Amino acid sequence: MAASKEDDTISITVEFSGGLEMLFSNERKLPLSIPAKDDTGARTNVAYLVNYLCENAMKDPKKELFVLDGTVRPGILVLINDADWELEGEEKYEVQEGDNILFVSTLHGG
Amino acid sequence: MASTLIIESLRQQIASCEVQLRDLQRQLAEAEHSHQQQLQERKHQSAQTGTDPLAYDFTHGIHDDFKSEVYAALLHTEDVQPPPNRWPLEKNEYRRYGRQLIVPVIGLQGQLLLKGASVLIVGVGGLGCPAAAYLVGAGVGTVGLVDGDTVEESNLHRQILHSTSRVGMTKVESAMVALHSLNPNVKLIPHHGRLSPETAISTVQSYDLVLDCTDTPASRYLISDTCVLLGKPLVSSSALRIDGQLMVLNNPPLPPGNTAGGPCYRCVFPKPPPPDSVLTCGDGGILGPVVGVMGVLQALEAIKVLTRFTGASTNGAASSDSPSLLIFSAYSNPMFRAMRLRARKPKCAACSAQATVTLEALSSGSLDYVQFCGTVAPVDALSANERISVENYAKIRLEANPFTGSEPSKDSHILVDVREKVQFDICSLEGSVNIPFSIVERTPGFSLKSSGNIDGSGEETDWVSELRKHSDKPVFVLCRRGNDSQITVKRMKELGLDNGGQRWIGDIKGGLQAWRISIDADFPEY
């Protein structure tokens, strides 16, 4: 497995903030190796990553606190390399080696 | 018992009023003192302008016919405005603001901008208190305060303007007392009650800038919409537990449809979060300095926006150019991270050319923010025979059986406390066992086999097998207020722990809160 790693997978860092870490076993920072391509052979994008996280990294069964209607639920900001994913093409952004992807849940306390 | 409670409560009220009275007396003394000083200063000034002109003897110099005119003219000088001040700030202001005046980004120009500015602070809690203290301290000319709550003891660890003696006072009044004694130069405007769609426009209208220091999604959307419609920049912040977030929105505050304006709250969060994902400080907890840091940063951002036009800061072009989200995480390294935010959303409901949020819609009350954000219905998951009152549970626990005469035994049943461990460790009923709700929730659906065979989630299912072992004993479930306990009872039954109805499993109504109110007043309230 290790031999073909460089071609098949990309290494990224996924981070959680604003309470989302509680859905991921209280891990705020998750170094991750994900497949470079999805089942159809297309390059892995953020939509794929979100689904991948749900199925592989999330221990909590309350998936609806992370994903709703097939996308990240309202109230969660996705930040790709310190920028709003809106600036990068949202779900269609193709994940690059070394990317930092941060999921932030909005807070409301005051 | 009841009468001693009343006596104690009256004693406390008297003590609290006495402290308030002393506080008012001190304020009166301060006010009288400064009034006296002002009078003396004025007297001093008029003394310098010379002797009383009316005391001059005109009898030999001026014709009688002119006397009355001269007198009239001389008398008139009393109405004439004093000559324009040589200095743009009052004498005391140079001393008071000296340390910030000499900072290049402020300077005299910046101080005058602050003095001429008005800021509305919505919410005088954990964010609003420090924010107001720094803005009033800095000499912002007018500060408005909006809040509908009264001061509670559980506010005091973080809401630094309030005090022990002012518990029970409205937050607006309490903050006014503290802020006035901090800086009497600032005009404070109280707005009692929560901001609502009906009051938002008239309340915000006369201010230059708004701080959102509230704690619900509904108020955040309302404040943002109002700011967009009235063209006010908005400094929005929030905090929970050990995290905080900060954004400067609608900055620059250009009219809806102008894409050069800064994004609004709706651009960043077009849809509200599901109501059950929203945690309050009361339920999630909050560390005082965390929310304090965020409130102080709001004051800082407000000062930056208000003094933006001073020569010194234009080359910095600080916060106005690129909208950003500042994330504070007290236990991460680094603690602060700034994220680049999007520009205005082309189809934003509030600030785009296609906006549906309009002044008319807002002021007519046709926008229901509470409905837009949804509410969490009170949990009502169980039937009456699956529940027991604290009084009846207390009998089971404390009283001997009247028929058999047998002493009550804690072993006769199982008491499960589903609060999180940190809360259980603060205080718990003797003999209760702790199964945190977060673990109950995470327990996979139909775990027919008992111990941890499902992807390493050993701890989750341990509690299930443990309860199965004692299948003859009834189970009472307890939590802080009586919501999670109901859901847990349902869950236990789904897992078959009631042996198809042979074993009683039920929840204690109202939880430990009801227990404290009706049974044991000494049980800690937190």
UniProtKB/TrEMBL annotation, chain A:
1-thioglycine modified-residue sites: G110
InterPro entries: Beta-grasp_dom_sf, Mopterin_synth/thiamin_S_b, Urm1
Organism of provenance: Lentithecium fluviatile CBS 122367
Post-translation changes: C-terminal thiocarboxylation occurs in 2 steps, it is first acyl-adenylated (-COAMP) via the hesA/moeB/thiF part of UBA4, then thiocarboxylated (-COSH) via the rhodanese domain of UBA4.
Major location (coarse): cytoplasm
tRNA processing in keyword set: yes
Record family assignment: Belongs to the URM1 family.
Pathway: tRNA modification; 5-methoxycarbonylmethyl-2-thiouridine-tRNA biosynthesis
Entry keywords, A to Z: Cytoplasm, Isopeptide bond, tRNA processing, Ubl conjugation pathway
Pfam families in UniProt: Urm1
Residues in cross-link Glycyl lysine isopeptide (Gly-Lys) (interchain with K-? in acceptor proteins): G110
Physiological role: Acts as a sulfur carrier required for 2-thiolation of mcm(5)S(2)U at tRNA wobble positions of cytosolic tRNA(Lys), tRNA(Glu) and tRNA(Gln). Serves as sulfur donor in tRNA 2-thiolation reaction by being thiocarboxylated (-COSH) at its C-terminus by the MOCS3 homolog UBA4. The sulfur is then transferred to tRNA to form 2-thiolation of mcm(5)S(2)U. Prior mcm(5) tRNA modification by the elongator complex is required for 2-thiolation. Also acts as a ubiquitin-like protein (UBL) that is covalently conjugated via an isopeptide bond to lysine residues of target proteins such as AHP1.
Subcellular location, record wording: Cytoplasm
Signal peptide coordinates: none
GO biological process, one term: tRNA thio-modification
GO cellular component terms, semicolon-separated: cytosol
Record's keyword annotation contains Cytoplasm: yes
Name of the protein described by the UniProt record: Ubiquitin-related modifier 1
Automatic annotation (TrEMBL), chain B:
Protein's name in the database: Adenylyltransferase and sulfurtransferase uba4
Protein role: Plays a central role in 2-thiolation of mcm(5)S(2)U at tRNA wobble positions of cytosolic tRNA(Lys), tRNA(Glu) and tRNA(Gln). Also essential during biosynthesis of the molybdenum cofactor. Acts by mediating the C-terminal thiocarboxylation of sulfur carriers urm1 and mocs2a. Its N-terminus first activates urm1 and mocs2a as acyl-adenylates (-COAMP), then the persulfide sulfur on the catalytic cysteine is transferred to urm1 and mocs2a to form thiocarboxylation (-COSH) of their C-terminus. Plays a central role in 2-thiolation of mcm(5)S(2)U at tRNA wobble positions of cytosolic tRNA(Lys), tRNA(Glu) and tRNA(Gln). Also essential during biosynthesis of the molybdenum cofactor. Acts by mediating the C-terminal thiocarboxylation of sulfur carriers urm1 and MOCS2A. Its N-terminus first activates urm1 and MOCS2A as acyl-adenylates (-COAMP), then the persulfide sulfur on the catalytic cysteine is transferred to urm1 and MOCS2A to form thiocarboxylation (-COSH) of their C-terminus.
Cofactor(s) demanded: Zn(2+)
Cellular component GO terms held in the UniProt record: cytosol
GO MF assignments: ATP binding; metal ion binding; molybdopterin-synthase adenylyltransferase activity; molybdopterin-synthase sulfurtransferase activity; thiosulfate-cyanide sulfurtransferase activity; URM1 activating enzyme activity
Source species: Lentithecium fluviatile CBS 122367
Active site: C281 (glycyl thioester intermediate), C479 (cysteine persulfide intermediate)
Name of one Pfam family that matches: ThiF
Taxonomic lineage: Eukaryota, Fungi, Dikarya, Ascomycota, Pezizomycotina
Domain of life: Eukaryota
Family in the record: In the N-terminal section; belongs to the HesA/MoeB/ThiF family. UBA4 subfamily.
